Amino acid sequence: MRHGSTTLLALVPALALASTQEAGAPLEELSSGTAAMPEVRVSGDVRLLAGVDTGFQPRRADGLSEHVVDGWGRASLVTDVKLSPTLRAVVEGRAFWRGGAEKGFERAKSSFEPYLGEAFLDVYTKWVDVRVGQQTLAFGANTFFAPSDLLNPRDLRQGFVVLEPDDLKLPVFAARAIATVGPLTVTGVWAPFFAPNRYDVFGQDMAALQPPLGVAVPLSVKPSVEDWLQPRLLETERPGLPGDLGLRVTGDVGRVKLGGSWVWANEKLPQVTIDPELDALWRAQQRGEPADTALLLSLQERVRSGESLVTGRYARQHVVAAEASTLVGPAQLDVDVGFSPSRTFYGDRLRPLRKPAATWVVGVSQAEESELFYSVTYTGLAVPRVGEQELLFLLEPGTARGREHTAFLHLLVGDVRYSLLGGRLEVGLRGAFEPIQRSFLVAPRVEWRVDERVHLGLAAEVYGGPSYSPFGYFGRNDQVLASLRVML
Fold this sequence. Notes:
Helices cover 9% and strands 48% of the residues. By secondary structure, it is mainly β.
């Protein structure tokens, strides 16, 4: 039996076809069994979230004010058609909407974004299973942190509390083939069309530009249009063919599933380069210093000649990785190790740096049905050849400067949940801790299941740490949140 991605079933478990497979079984198992009439399943859900900050900071003049109230919504509607034992089609529509306002309900804004979710055709044959269309791909053992899991862009516009790892992965158009070669399962993927991460540059609580940077927003627009501008604001060029390529081979050795993968892909965030003269002018203005006349004349001449002073291009990177998974009692143990010879980082002056990087991930999660669920993941990153005057943005404290060194990041992420009252009440705690700069995120939450289709939730989100640490950078966003989920 061939095994493929279970991502769609994780998102919409109602899609499992009870007449041909158990809930949660791999998609490719739909190819087994006797011929039957076409079957259609329609499912979906709507999730609403409202957040209120624990402190109302006043409006800032630099365009980086925080929202003190926020609202988000996500909706999904899926049609799953099993045409025959060898043919299956899925079409999913998604929508994302949000609104927010600053203190005193100033600069209120909202947006609505419908888009295509997973939409693919599956063809199952004796030798190979093929999927073509919008899809979510899975490389590596770990659900989200695997170093070779780079083929899907991520949605980075929302917080940590109510989203699952698969919610952050956006479907991408690709052709995927899975074949069994002796004891091995071989997966090949080609994603010909580029799709970037979705992120905010400014004006949102999870935006890339935060107050600690001391960089003002370089344009002035009305709140009603600023979010629509952001997807193109930092880029000047997008990649074309050959697109992204991936190859994964897995096999069982006793009780351990081993595998290896190779990915050659475009990075999903632009590599932004600002001309040194323009950067010097901006920083002088931020310090309140008069502009240097010679510098201004030089920039004017270069602009007249058509020279580009800001570029935003998407670099490519190779990643090779190894993975292993096994059951240890009631828990599943996952291990991933990866290496990239060249990857984009940013220095403390926001200049891109290309460095080799090694990543390792160890995860332990509950694998049996239980009232208690837990998941703990440790991720490590090593970046060698960091120069004596270089400092990796958000990854290193200022004390690291002064000698050539290897930069390290250690990250511990945990999720613990416990069900009470026959599963109707669930209490949980999510958290993340980065020990080098001692930055952290803590997110307690509680959920009440009104019935199988309606869930109500209450949560909090607290950030801490130095201003240039991974979680301290977003330290202004402490908030209390209420949620509603309705499954159709």
